[in-house]
Amino acid sequence: MVGANMSEQPITFWLTSGQFSDFNSGWFRSIGNVIIGTMYFYAWFPILEALGYFGLRLLFRIMDRGCSCDKYKTKKTSI
Fold this sequence. Notes:
By secondary structure, the chain is an all-alpha fold. The chain has one domain (1-79). The protein contains 1 helix and no strands. It has one helix at residues 25-65. The radius of gyration is 25 Å and the shape is rod-shaped.
């Protein structure tokens, strides 16, 4: 939005006086890459977050068992 030149619009202020008046190759080179990078981040982050939390839960369970394969062995005395 900051790079957009909206001087022809009815409401303008200091953030709308950018250098690009339309979606052209200059806009895609400078601003389009940032938007695409943000889209990639928002597409992959929920998956990575879920895998990370699953991995932490698994790690804490293994540490509680004392690195044993017996899934009923635990150091906890209550729920």
